[in-house]
Specification:
The longest helix is centred in the last third of the chain and has 59 residues. The protein has about 500 residues and is of the alpha/beta class. Among the domains are: about 80 residues; about 140 residues, 3-Layer(aba) Sandwich (Phosphatidylinositol Transfer Protein Sec14p); about 130 residues, Sandwich (Immunoglobulin-like). Helix 2 crosses helix 5 and helix 4 packs across helix 5. The strands form 2 sheets. Strands 6, 7, 8, 9, 10, 11, 12, 13, 14 and 15 form a 10-stranded mixed β-sheet that branches. The chain has a 5-stranded mixed β-sheet with strand order 1-2-3-4-5, covered by helices on one side. Helix content is about 35%, strand content about 20%.
């Protein structure tokens, strides 16, 4: 099976998974939870391809494993009542506290989900309600982002050992790994205190190998590699002065359709229209601040990108490289700039420039030496362009300054998003071996060793928890000892003064 096949399940394979699920429902009807699977989940299986594609890509097109994960997910969603979670049945005081909330986009245009660790103290809140709050936000973001990736940012500024709940973090990782394939773009850990370094390494070991590359430890110096200043909060050094205030969800037409439609509209699945959410405009929301001039087919009003949508990488000598042609189809000069989700991975030449009307340029993208290609398909490129007035300078320094002050949200900026694609057999296979496919929480675990690794790490987590509790107890003991010592010093000082006064009085007599 070639790599492109792994990355793109054919409609026939998708339909095969759909029919296999239907057959399993008939064969194992006694294993379906009481009341049957939720109609929203069944609609996502029988009314479009998006969900099925995620499960197939997550399992490298292994139909058996994809069916098992899809079935387990539907069972979990039904028994956990995920589809029924709403503002009416979550702890709203937890929501209003702003422990977690979505805000802004990363450089790849994905919604950022912020977890403010310092606001959560282990054991201070009901863990089940915390888990439910996480699912509420996760489901809402996925709906509002039209099933696109999201980026989770753990903000650890001023956080300590008491602010880290390993049971909660493990629950989040397990949920994402098992039931939300192809959902995360990055896991960003911001401003990690040195005292939590051990915790970070344990979290890193909990993740499958493919997930580790998406886990980034960032600071105020490196955060710009993933988030631009317009989407960075003031605390992170950005320009966004946003203060969290809960806004009730505005249900999109698609969500209402999922709640009202039935899968029995047609007995012939081949007649069901396939809905691709990438072509549906997201509901307006403070969590969806996508530019209005975004082009997904490579053909915009100012630029034409060839090939559209992707950069195809092939082996050239010792390098893995790709190229795209950018053509100005406007009647005025256009300046362009290219950004990427992983600046450290690629060399892009030329990354910025000016094109006169009808002119074109070939942009070369090279994977840097020493960089792994097994997650190359997860990286993205953003081509930004805007028209130049006759009075605007075109020298490189002025262009750099111009783009420095222009946001991707500017109405005059046209955007083209490109994914990375590895050609079939770019070399002898030693470097990729099918690794570019799959989700960060996907097949990185071997089936036979996953439970063993998880059990081992649970023991490590338990040991860390015990160590943390001992350290906290020791700190409290030391504090109490200091207070007692201080009290003894004060009493001793008072006694000394009293004795000295008595001696002076005796001498004077």
């Amino acid at each position: 099976m070639t790599l492109p096949e792994l990355l793109n399940p054919t409609p026939q394979v998708v339909d095969q998974l759909r029919q296999s699920f239907r057959q399993k429902m008939e064969k194992d009807a006694d294993k379906i939870p009481p009341g049957g699977f939720h109609k929203n989940d069944l609609n996502k299986i029988f009314m479009n391809d998006v969900w099925l594609v995620k499960f197939l890509e997550n399992n490298d097109l292994d139909l058996k494993e994809s069916l098992k994960q899809l079935w387990d997910t539907c069972v979990w969603r039904k028994t956990t009542k995920v589809n029924d979670i709403s503002e009416d049945n979550v702890r709203m005081e937890y929501i209003h506290d702003g422990i977690m909330f979505p805000r802004g986009k990363d450089l790849d245009g994905k919604t950022i989900f912020i977890f403010r660790s310092r606001l959560y103290t282990r054991g201070s809140r009901d863990l089940d309600d915390m888990k439910r709050m996480f699912l509420y936000w996760l489901e809402r973001m996925i709906r509002e982002a039209n099933d696109d990736y999201i980026t989770i940012l753990f903000e650890l500024t001023d956080a300590g050992l008491s602010n880290v709940d390993m049971n909660y973090i493990q629950h989040i990782i397990t949920i994402l790994k098992n039931y939300y394939p192809l959902s995360l773009n990055y896991i960003l850990v911001y401003d990690l205190p040195w005292i939590l370094n051990a915790t970070f390494h344990i979290i890193k070991k909990l993740l499958p190998a493919k997930a580790v590359d998406r886990l980034k430890n960032i600071s105020n110096k490196t955060i710009r590699e993933y988030i631009d200043e317009d989407n960075m909060l003031l605390l992170w050094g950005g320009t966004d002065d946003y203060v969290f205030k809960f806004v009730p969800e505005q249900k999109s037409p698609r969500h209402e359709l999922e709640n009202n439609n039935s899968i029995h509209h047609s007995n012939n699945n081949n007649h069901i229209k396939k809905v691709h959410f990438a072509n549906v405009s997201p509901q307006d929301s403070p969590m969806n601040e996508s530019p209005s001039s975004e082009n997904e087919n490579g053909h915009g009003e100012m630029l034409r990108i060839t090939p559209p949508n992707r950069i195809v990488f092939t082996k050239s000598g010792n390098e893995l490289s790709g190229c795209v042609e950018i053509e100005n189809i406007d009647n005025k000069p256009v300046t362009y700039k290219i950004k990427t989700t992983a600046p450290e991975k690629f060399r892009v030449r030329p990354s910025t420039g000016v094109l006169s009307p009808g002119a074109d340029v070939m942009v070369n993208v090279v994977l840097q030496q020493g960089q792994q290609m097994n997650t190359l398909n997860r990286e993205k490129f953003l081509v930004m362009c805007m028209g130049l007035g006759s009075d605007m300078s075109t020298n490189s320094q002025d262009l750099a300054e111009l783009w420095k002050n222009v946001s991707s949200k500017n109405d005059s900026v046209e955007l083209h998003r490109l994914t990375c694609w590895v050609a079939a057999n770019p070399d002898d296979g030693r470097h990729h071996n099918g690794g570019a496919a799959g989700d960060m929480f996907g097949a990185g675990y071997a089936a036979g060793g996953a439970d063993e690794h998880l059990s081992h790490f649970q023991q490590v987590i338990s040991q860390l928890g015990d160590t943390t509790h001992r350290l906290e107890a020791q700190v409290k003991f030391n504090q109490n000892l200091q207070w007692i010592s201080l009290l003894l010093v004060v009493l001793l000082s008072v006694a000394t003064v009293y004795i000295l006064k008595a001696e002076i009085k005796n001498l004077s007599q």
